[in-house]
Amino acid sequence: MAGVAGGTLLGRGARAEVVVADVPAPGYEIESGAELRVLRPAKFVAGDEELFLANSKKFTDQTGVAVRVDQESWQDLRPKTAVAANVGTGPDIVLAWNDDPHQYPEKILDLTDLADYLGKKYGGWAPLAETMGKGPDGNWICIPVGASGGKMVYRDSWMKEAGFSEFPKDTAGFLELAKALQGIGHPVGFTLGQAEGDANTFCHWMLWAHGASVVDENGKVTLDSPETRAALAYGTELYKTFIPGTLSWLDPSNNKAFLAGEVSVVANGISVYYAAKTSDDPALKEMAEDIGHAPMPIGPVGRPTETALTVSGMIFGHTKYPNAAKEYLRFMMEKEQYEPWQEASIGYWAHSLNAYDGNPVWTVDPKHTPYQKIMTESLPYGYKGPLGYASAGTLADYIVVTMVSSVVSGAASPDDAIAEATRRAERYYR
Amino acid sequence: MASAATVWDGRRPEQSWLSRKLDDRRVLAALFMLPVAALLFTFLSYPLGLGIWLGFTDTRIGRDGIWIGLENYIYLFEDSVFWLSVFNTIVYTVLATVLKFALGLWLALLLNHHLPFKSLIRAIVLLPWIVPTVLSAIAFWWIYDPQFSIISYVLKGMGIIDANIDFLGEPWNARLSLIAANVWRGIPFVAISLLAGLQTISPSLYEAAMIDGATAWERFVHVTVPMLMPILAVVLTFSVLFTFTDFQLVYAITRGGPNNATHLMATLAFQRAIPGGYLGEGAAIAVAMIPFLVASTIFSYVALARRKWQQGGRDD
User: Fold this and answer.
1) pLDDT, tens only, A190-205
2) Which of A175, B129, B255, B302 has its CA 20 to 30 A from that of A208?
3) Which of B54, B58, B147 to mutate to test the interface with A (most CBs of A within 10 A)?
4) Can you give the pTM of this predicted structure?
């Protein structure tokens, strides 16, 4: 497990390093005249896009395969992917959202040989990557590229002003902190609008932290439970400490509010810190010094229940150049490309291969470190059930978000909201 | 004069079958209409037929469906979110259309007077309609932002309010905010169309009315309104259709939130069909819009385009 050695056995003071095993590459024979179209989510941090495009150009320079990279906003990526899958034309490769590859496993290529190669070379796959990458038959249907996880992003000075020396590790302590922060005029803010990333991250964390889940291991809807009611009761108390307006927040809203100094705590990727740290504005640079990152608090269930937005490279069966497409994915996951890409986005996309634990980006700034193990610690959105059409649809339909937001805002009683969410979820899980 | 060398024998030269057919006006008309018919079939009839078919199946994205009859419709009939979207769509359409027509007519009447820089003003009035919807939606998203709204900022500065207005977080605030954005976008279409109508009204009618002692209001009610009715019917029909099927504003500003309170039928159909993957159910929601659209079209034509009624007579 060379990669693990590179990542976890790093001694104090030693320089972090990505250690790779000597494994022969699969050697895909690129088709003559090959060209590729790649569809990926739009950037949330600038460095992500810059290095991704630079790496793609490097691939073209080395192989002669022209690569066109299209970017779609987060909300539009899923429809575009769906249309390509349905009509059998369009991009050859999609860096697809979450469980999208599991929606149409028969429309995409088997990538087991590539996944085996990468796993052996880079110290194995992180648990979330393994869950996301393997299809119903245990074969690899996609190559998990990375995940953006939500952590508690907070203003350290305000937390201390509120009387807390460190960020609470459990949900009860966090509620106390939120109340105290509201008391000193610096409320917290968590997204409750129809936001694909942040709202789903926050609401699923809260649900799972109390031991609830949309479905059990067999895909049976289990929302009508005391655990769900406990989660909603907690959310109702927590919501009282929110800044007004979070019911309409979309994905960029909490970033904007935090960077404007309107809120003290949000649940977000490292993008907030990235924006402050790389800003030319002295006030934002100063704010970056004051930003802290902490794991999402642990609830009564007693273990971490974070989740993460995963992107996975999948190759459509309709591609005319399957070998070129596989070679492209291999190339992008190799250390020479992946390491600088991850570094440029200061770890916005946490890695799927264990060896990248050793990427110096995680240790060069201690504020990056909490995001290092996203794909080791996070649960998939479809937890606890199987991934596929139902889990993807349930997420895209904002079933959990609507249940949470309607109860905490008083628009619906817990019983009504749970009944409605159950009815919708059962529509997908049937 | 000697006769010409060729002698007409009383018969026309023999025409080919194709020439004979092309001389037939009915054939020629059909031929000329064929491209349009092909376009209409490809881009209107086929998608419509496919949508109706999908509504009776359980098709998902990436997987063909099977015929399930009315199952999708039965599910929707008991779905509170669907009925909320129907309610929202009707409220959105009715309120936005009434406001667009009231303000649009007012604007048209103003623009019909001789104003300095008339052409420039008319061009400026069209701006909201010309700006791509998504751009204006993003502008409204900022205007309605719970933290950074310019409206809240100004009102707070004037001391009228203490806290920011939650434009999009409260269901009715959100609905009315979206209606306001739609009205802003839609007024130019109504105003310019009605202005065109106003300019076709002969000044002699007003002169005659004035000689009869009609007041300005009476001239408006008895001359302007009846003369505008034909174009009003057409503009109203189009406006209702545009508003009823609106998607972009809602999708860009609220995505149907908070708590589905601003979902229109179009946005709900999209959410369930494409991101949700359930093409069958999404198609059923879209098909459920058709009766409303047909009813509003019939209403516009039957109720507003009655010639006799427009001219002050009674209907047959």
Assistant:
1) 999 998 889 999 999 9
2) B255
3) B147
4) 0.87
